[in-house]
Amino acid sequence: MPLQTGYRAISQLYAPGEVEKSRDPTTPFRFAEPVYGIGEWRSLHRITDLNQLLWQYHHQGDDYLCRSAVPVITEDYQFNEED
Question: InterPro entries of this UniProt entry (predicted)?
């Protein structure tokens, strides 16, 4: 399922008060758009570590992203091929 996982800057960083009618005129301002990723709904019985439910924030360059606190182990499924 698509999940919003963060934001990406689409403008330069403006000085505090430079952009009219911004929410907080004392904080630098930047226009941003949402970043989406693909997520998986996991039932509680499949969670082996509570940290799998928690996200941590990461800021890198113009990106502000949320990531899983620990790598999630994925399961490989094998399908029977019918002749």
Answer: CRISPR-assoc_prot_Csy2
Q: Is residue 33 part of a domain?
A: yes
Structure-token pair, residue 74? 């994925």
pTM for the full model? 0.62
Calpha distance 1→36 (Å, rounded): 10
pLDDT in tens, 43-67: 888 888 888 788 888 888 889 988 8
Q: Report how many domains make up the chain.
A: 1
Domain that holds residue 59: 2-68
CA 65 – CA 78 distance, rounded (Å): 33
> In degrees, to the nearest 5, what angle opens at C-alpha 42 toward C-alphas 2 and 45?
170
In a domain, 14, yes or no: yes
Asked if the structure places residue 80 within a domain, the reply is: no
Residues 6+ apart with CB under 8 A from 16: 24, 25, 26, 27, 28, 29
